[in-house]
Give the backbone structure.
Amino acid sequence: MLWEKLKYVAAVLLYGTVGTFLRFVALPSEMVAFFRGLIGAVFILLALLFRGKRPDGAAIRRNGRWLLLSGVCLGLNWLFLFAAYVETSVAVASLCNYLAPVLVIAAAPLLLRERLDKRKLPLIFLALIGIVLVSGVLGGGGGSLKGVLLGLAAAVCFAAIVLCNRRLRDISPMDRSLVQLVLSAATLLPFVLVKSWGHWPAPDLGSVLIVLLLGAVHTGFAYCLYFSGMGSLPVQTVALLGYLEPVVSVLCSAFFLAEPLTLLGWVGAALILGAAAAGELLPEKK
């Protein structure tokens, strides 16, 4: 159990440092997101082949509609989130993106026919207050409006991925991730071509190495660790440890990028993360 927990935590910590590494890449955000998906998909495919396995074509076709939608949403999530990293601090962008679990609580009754637990309504309200504090509109978070809106758009896409994944049936996590990464890259390719048409950027060696790192280590390898670790862990442990990701993003933003939140910003961060974690950890009503 300890080894599985360590693998899961390692994956979550890798996810949390993505925004910090992006600060040192001299490439358009949509291009970085595209190559992250492409390289990550290649890594997972090679990992499957190395284990003597092949993607389950029947399972993929059976879940085709929801895989397609979730893959497109994954690409858009990265597109908006990486753009938010450019427009505002890594901390603010990450916290806005992590409003997604609260959005899932609000949307599930409408989209999944799940009964809304009224105990969770205050959590939605607290998370919204947290976004206001983090955004800086009250002078407390330091986030630009454009960056906050991009982060919130990323959160909507993140929530859509979660809702789509709940519809998937009888497909392995690795097959699901492989297809979603391929589709995310396909979704991002038109944005890359349109924005870079006629002036393809010439990246420096450092940027190339970081993009390779983000694709192979922070995506492909991290996905393998993530699913390998979470397989035998209790659901509540997985949910709780998952909140290390935005915490790491906030800490990296403050200590490595000198993008600290003010007092109100920290209060907002606590409200967002606390509301999201409580929503997932709250026992189901019988």
In short: The radius of gyration is 18 Å. The chain has 14 helices and no strands. The first helix runs from residue 2 to 16. The mean pLDDT is 86.
